[in-house]
């Protein structure tokens, strides 16, 4: 009889874990609280370690990349002039640029019709017992609620930043979630920003507030507002557009902020949230293990959350294949994965200064680095 594993969450970490565990002979069952699979989402960069894991999962060629080839990136100055700078896709690591939904659609090709997925379903209690995990599940569709209890050999909590598995098994959110004192709003623009071609990127950054417009090859650009604040709770009192209008008042060179907020007003699919990292001493307890943002959320500033989630899911299955003792395998997996996560974590605060500088020195250094990057690119293009 094969081992049964319950995977909570149909995001990247959950799907990667499910595909990999199926490859290794397990029987995965995914539960997803939403009634259907989400699509769309914001701009992402997928890095080498994520692509490598996706290849091993057999889905790399199913992920639609959107890295723009003729892109130019502009830093908009206070007086409305612009300077060419290096952009997100110009990093030496050359990430593939795409939408969150592109990665999830690729992973879905390895899940659909091959792995059982129960939508509208969430765990309500999780109990480690000597030879498995007993889980109570609540299934809710069109107001009809059914409840069941099942036993699994392993539970994988891949249910994101505010993981309910973590809360039920490891402790309350405040033990593990650490605020970076920042907010984000990410969404797809309806059209390119006036006076900028679709494949051009735009940054307007001041101390503590910034707007990034990320270009994509065959799609309208996406917008990312991000700002720093000491009062996170206050940011949720009004609707996001009104809040952003207040925070970004007096910063509207070339009407870019107004135009982006105009699109947000009409958008139904946006993410407005506070930025938190997740830090845990252990990612597993008994036969319950956390993967992805639930375990280590690195935040958008790291640009490595998707990569880490896919890599983590793949490597978890490899560790379980190598060791029949499930709890020992979870420890082996964590030992192998920790150095990668710790390395990314070290860079989060530094990288956040590129997205939204917190002081005048950081602001100046950021501009210098981006301009040098832009000049190098310009010279490279001239030479080519
Ligand atoms: C604006 C932005 C930009 C980013 N840019 C990058 C980037 O450039 N590169 C990069 O690598 N990463 C980036 N990231 C991070 C990356 O998107 C995340 O790290 C990654 O998507 C996390 O995947 P996950 O599967 O761990 O969690 P999630 O994507 O949060 O998925 C969790 C899933 O679990 C489901 N769920 C939640 N609770 C329950 C429950 N109780 N029961 C059942 N199901 C549940 C949810 O509905 C969801 O489907 C960015 C993030 C943001 C917000």
From TrEMBL:
<dbReference type="Pfam" id="PF01494">
    <property type="entry name" value="FAD_binding_3"/>
</dbReference>
<feature type="domain" description="FAD-binding">
    <location>
        <begin position="4"/>
        <end position="320"/>
    </location>
</feature>
<dbReference type="InterPro" id="IPR002938">
    <property type="entry name" value="FAD-bd"/>
</dbReference>
<protein>
    <submittedName>
        <fullName>2-polyprenyl-6-methoxyphenol hydroxylase</fullName>
    </submittedName>
</protein>
<dbReference type="InterPro" id="IPR036188">
    <property type="entry name" value="FAD/NAD-bd_sf"/>
</dbReference>
<dbReference type="GO" id="GO:0071949">
    <property type="term" value="F:FAD binding"/>
</dbReference>
<dbReference type="InterPro" id="IPR051704">
    <property type="entry name" value="FAD_aromatic-hydroxylase"/>
</dbReference>
């Amino acid at each position: 009889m094969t081992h049964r594993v319950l995977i909570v969450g149909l995001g990247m970490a959950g799907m990667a874990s499910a595909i990999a565990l199926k490859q290794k002979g397990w029987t995965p069952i995914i539960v997803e609280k939403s009634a259907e699979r989400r699509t769309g989402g914001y701009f992402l960069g997928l890095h080498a370690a994520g692509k490598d894991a996706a290849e091993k999962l057999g889905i790399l060629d199913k992920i639609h990349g959107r890295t723009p080839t003729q892109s130019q990136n502009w830093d908009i100055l206070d007086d409305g002039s612009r300077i060419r700078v290096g952009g997100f896709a110009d990093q030496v690591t050359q990430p593939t640029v795409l939408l969150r939904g592109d990665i999830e659609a690729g992973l879905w090709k390895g899940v659909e019709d091959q792995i059982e997925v129960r939508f509208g379903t969430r765990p309500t209690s999780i109990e480690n017992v000597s030879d498995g995990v007993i889980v109570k599940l609540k299934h809710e569709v069109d107001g009809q609620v059914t409840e069941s209890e099942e036993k699994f050999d392993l539970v994988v909590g891949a249910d994101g930043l505010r993981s309910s598995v973590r809360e039920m098994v490891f402790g309350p959110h405040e033990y593990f979630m650490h605020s970076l004192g920042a907010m984000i709003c990410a969404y797809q623009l309806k059209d390119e920003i006036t006076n900028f071609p679709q494949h051009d990127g735009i940054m307007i950054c001041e101390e503590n507030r910034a707007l990034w417009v990320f270009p994509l090859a065959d799609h309208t650009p996406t917008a990312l507002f991000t700002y720093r604040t000491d009062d996170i709770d206050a940011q949720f009192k009004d609707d996001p557009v009104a809040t952003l209008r207040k925070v970004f008042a007096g910063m509207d060179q070339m009407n870019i902020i107004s135009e982006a907020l105009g699109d947000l007003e009409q958008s139904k699919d946006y993410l407005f949230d506070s930025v938190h990292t997740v830090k845990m001493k252990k990612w597993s307890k008994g036969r319950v293990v956390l993967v992805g943002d639930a375990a280590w959320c690195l935040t958008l500033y790291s640009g490595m959350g998707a990569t880490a989630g896919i890599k983590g899911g793949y490597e978890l299955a490899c560790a379980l294949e190598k060791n029949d003792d499930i709890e020992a395998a979870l420890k082996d997996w964590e030992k192998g994965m920790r150095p990668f996560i710790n390395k990314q974590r070290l860079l989060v605060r530094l990288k956040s200064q590129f997205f939204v500088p917190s002081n005048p020195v950081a602001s100046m250094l950021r501009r210098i680095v981006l301009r040098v990057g832009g000049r190098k690119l310009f010279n490279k293009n001239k030479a080519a």
